Amino acid sequence: MTYDDITVGIEGAIATICVNRPEKLNALRDQTADELVAALQSLEQIPEVTVVILTGSGRAFGTGYDLGTVNLDEGCDLHAVLEHHFNPLILALRRSRLLIISRVNGPCAGVSVGIALSCDIVMASQTAYFYEPFAQIALVPDGGNTYFLPTIAGRTRALAAMLLGDKISAEEAMAWGLVWQVHAADMLDAKVQETATRIARLAPNAIKRTKQLVNTACESGLAAQLDLERDYQGELGGSPEMVAAISRFVKGGKGHQ
Predict the structure, then answer these.
(1) Is 244 inside any structural domain?
(2) What is the CATH number of the domain that holds 108?
(3) pTM
(4) In this structure, is residue 1 part of a structural domain?
(5) How many Å is the maximal CA-CA distance in the chain?
(6) Of 31, 64, 70, 204, which cross-links 257 as Cys (Cβ 3.0–4.6 Å)?
(7) For the segment 126-161, what is each residue's pLDDT rounded down to a tens digit?
(8) Would you call 74 exposed, middle or buried from its count of C-beta atoms within 10 A (0-12, 13-18, 19+)?
(9) Domain range for 50
């Protein structure tokens, strides 16, 4: 299968999926989410593949939803965007039999944070940071952010991060439990590959069942929370405040969430 927004490579038991929109700092459009789901589904049909590395090309992991694709004059149906594109992606990542490592090589913002945290192991560069800009553009966090951040980092940290929009450094994210390891930028590739190789040596059913058990213990409310994010985002998606905020955002050359 050919893709426009991502690349997929396979080497033995390890596959790499890379969002390939470096000129947009890997901001995601609806098509990108659909391609990521399709790539996961395709890889799941290859028994030899047990581990996936998910990353972004260039200097960013991903800077959220590509707000440059939003036509503010025609309205913004964010309910549909989440329902049909991004919520299926988050659930696909969590429910996949594949062990997924997010290689956060740089800035990670908005829905891209939810995508990174929906992976099974998060490894980051020292140059990476995590950023929740939603309230700054009159929206609520989505992509599972309101599930993952409070669950992992705690209510107080999550709410402050989401409302204040301060950038969370890789080291701080590791202290919060959002990241497993942080490495120098020039060492990240090797360390991610080393981790993927160690996991790929394990019995496939042991990987799959361990992931299922941990997820079952941790996330019984994820699907319901994604639905609630969708509903609230749909409610706010057409507000005058959001239209004005996104217009300023895009005119400032930051066409992503």
Answers:
(1) yes
(2) 3.90.226.10
(3) 0.91
(4) no
(5) 53
(6) 64
(7) 999 999 999 999 999 999 999 999 999 999 999 999
(8) exposed
(9) 6-251
